[in-house]
Amino acid sequence: MIASPQTESATASELVIKDNTVVEDSAAAGDVPLLSNAASRVSNVNTELAAPKGPSTNVKARSLAAGQVNRIVDGALPEGMSVSRDARIALQKCATISLLYLASLADAERKAVGSSRTTLNVQDVRAALAAAGMAHLLPLMTAAPKRSRD
Length: 150
Known about the structure:
Blueprint: E1 13-18, E2 21-26, E3 32-34, H1 38-41, E4 47-50, E5 58-61, H2 66-76, H3 85-113, H4 122-131, H5 138-143
């Protein structure tokens, strides 16, 4: 679902969500979708994303907290394994992009139903996971509904 790279030169990188697809947009390339290596191409914590509502609406996106991502990564790794600093930053950026993508899918599902709600709920997130081809993760949502504190 992610656009393949058209060119390698992108002067002003900006992530844009178009038709429920996160693509990298270059002002110099004339709105050509680019995304060859999302983790290394996102250069800033405060990346501007153009909302799908219109060209004049911009949403400031912030990366997930590094401590939260580090705890998740450390919990998923087997004993004795470590992750480099650059890999942790790449995982943080990938997690942020993935959550933004799922949120845009959930918003599209909410709008498709014709709801005027402004808050996404669990049903919207479940529909977004199914639409993204991640329906196999749905049982995990019901198996661990409460946040655990270790």
